Amino acid sequence: GEDVEQSLFLSVREGDSSVINCTYTDSSSTYLYWYKQEPGAGLQLLTYIFSNMDMKQDQRLTVLLNKKDKHLSLRIADTQTGDSAIYFCSIGGGGADGLTFGKGTHLIIQP
Amino acid sequence: DAGVIQSPRHEVTEMGQEVTLRCKPISGHNSLFWYRQTMMRGLELLIYFNNNVPIDDSGMPEDRFSAKMPNASFSTLKIQPSEPRDSAVYFCASSSQGGQGNSPLHFGNGTRLTVT
User: Dihedrals φ, ψ of A103, to 5°?
Assistant: First the structure.
């Protein structure tokens, strides 16, 4: 089956950039997503990238996709305390299986 | 749009009792997913419906778990009898194309289940 791997924790200083990494095994995925989960809430779609793109930028967020290495990253510029959350990498386009999620990366912001 | 609505938000029950979790998907979405989240296992897909029909229930842990979708606007996940190891946050999510194409999942806020 598909496998999506993420580091469990990332700690950054407020104002610095955060880079959350994800690797996956399924090369047939057409869309790759990043979700954000704040405490006590469900997962919210943050951004996505189509598999034929290398990069997508949306304000403070930059998504990079390396299809050859099956590596996806999310960069958050000027990290703020409100960015503290769990970030999930997710891949889709596999039909009936829906989306496959990583275990999530806890982003910890240091003052 | 109100988003995906789950109830109850919290459920505390004793081992052996029946638990029913409820979900109302976003209107117009034809696919519905039930996930379970724990610290140890992360987010696990339990079951998936497309057009009210269960497509893949291979993630349902045991026969104690069952899910139904009697119509396009309502689904239930039932655990009978419940056990302490079922304690987790259960999420319902819906999408418009069943995960195909650009069809992200929209999640509810979850039901936190505690079985004592």
Answer: -80, -10
